[in-house]
Design a protein that fits this description.
The protein is of the alpha+beta class and 396 residues long. The chain has 11 helices and 16 strands. It is globular, with a radius of gyration of 24 Å.
Length: 396
């Protein structure tokens, strides 16, 4: 006798059937979606104009001032002194390895974003969670949801998202290194992207956003039925440049990872980082701000080790950068500025105070806003420079 499926199993089966239906003919689903969007937003002013006026300044946030609401919430959320004591006791211990499982013993997995430069947090998450599975379930932004990860238990380095064509109308700008500046790239439909190529995603949503550039660069990693699967690569436009060099977010992340490996024998790691170019001196140079995390019992990292990290970062950067350092002398030695603990939390607080959403905040990998730079510089505890030139070989 065939066993009856549980309600949860039946719901899962229904979701999987829906995914198969939506991804079997992406082109026709997208045609229907764009028709619905245009019909739904036919009277929307900024769909009929090329540019929408931006609203300047921070938005006002209204707190809950209604006393009846406060009283209703107070009746549900009661204090638990015993729980507070146990949390305080755990957090007061010197060893925080596996603390998530001790504070929340029923935790089975972490729902996290670990793609692109967010991959830097994987070792830290493993340390604090005691090795709990890390799951990246979906790909979304403030504007809309884009897709789902059909292999949620895969390794963080293998995460890819299947774009669901019913969620919005998706178009893509090809990202080509050899594209001439000023050239207008042609938009590519969702059904016509090519495996292995990189694109910047552009969306038209049911809420009325028209060809909005999200700013994410994605790489086509494969297909599920006719629906493309993408890996997040980087944010568009995050580039360090002093001369003819161009260092993007991915290169910077790789360089930080390579250099931070020198810290591990000393019980330290890079908790957060950002960067900028310093051009008020000639030659200009890269400045990278590091906030360090010391494991229990670790002492301060020696100056020589951090100086070596500067050179290790330069060794990991592209050949144009290294040629500019070695041959042309048009770029000065890379500088690491170590900031005191809590600096990046202060940067987040400052950004949110100017109107950013705390739910959408991500540490910027390149800073150009003068007040943000001043905040970082006010927290510097030590400066370090490359003591030697990186390796570079001419192949001509």
């Amino acid at each position: 006798m065939e066993q009856m499926a549980s309600p949860a199993q039946a719901k899962d089966a229904e979701v999987l059937r829906f995914i198969e239906e939506m991804t079997s003919d992406v082109d026709s689903v997208q045609e229907r979606v764009v028709a619905e969007i245009l019909a739904q937003n036919a009277g929307t002013e900024y769909l009929s104009k090329p540019v929408a006026h931006a609203v300047d300044g921070p938005r006002h946030r209204l707190g809950v001032a209604d006393e009846s609401v406060r009283e209703a919430v107070a009746g549900i959320l009661r204090p638990d002194p015993e729980l507070a004591r146990s949390v305080r006791e755990e957090c007061g211990k010197a060893e925080w390895a596996g603390i998530l499982g001790r504070v929340w013993p029923n935790t089975r997995y972490l729902d996290v974003v670990i793609t692109g430069t967010m991959a830097q947090y994987v070792p830290t998450l493993r340390h604090y969670s005691g090795g709990l599975p890390m799951v990246s379930l979906s790909y979304a932004s403030s504007e809309c949801y884009f897709g789902v990860n059909l292999r949620p238990l895969c390794d963080p380095s293998e995460v890819s998202y299947t774009i669901m064509p019913n969620l919005a109308y998706f178009e893509f700008l090809p990202v080509d290194d050899d594209q001439e500046e000023g050239d207008e790239p042609m938009l590519v439909d969702l059904a016509r992207v090519e495996a292995g190529r990189e694109y910047e995603i552009v969306i038209t949503t049911f809420a009325g956003l028209n060809r909005y550039r999200v700013g994410d660069v994605l790489r086509v990693s494969g297909f599920h039925n006719s629906a493309p699967q993408f890996q997040f690569v980087r944010r568009a436009g995050v580039v360090l440049s002093v001369d003819v060099d161009k260092t993007d977010e991915v290169e910077l992340q790789r360089a930080v990872e390579r250099a931070s490996a020198l810290l591990r024998p000393h019980g330290a790691s890079v908790a957060e980082y950002t960067s900028r170019t310093c051009t008020y001196r000639i030659p200009g140079h890269y400045v990278v701000y590091w906030e360090l995390l010391l494991l229990a019992g670790a002492v301060e990292v020696d100056k020589e080790v951090l100086d070596g990290c500067c050179l290790e970062m330069e060794e990991a950067l592209n050949t144009v950068y290294r040629q500019s350092r070695v041959v042309d002398g048009s770029i000065g030695p890379l500088e690491i500025r170590v900031v005191r603990p809590g600096t990046f939390e202060g940067l987040m607080d400052y950004t949110i105070s100017r109107g950013a959403s705390i739910n959408q905040y991500k540490t910027p990998r390149c800073v150009t806003f003068p007040p943000a730079i001043r905040l970082l510089d006010s927290c510097v505890v030590s400066n370090h420079f490359s003591a030697a030139l990186p390796r570079w070989t001419s192949y001509h």
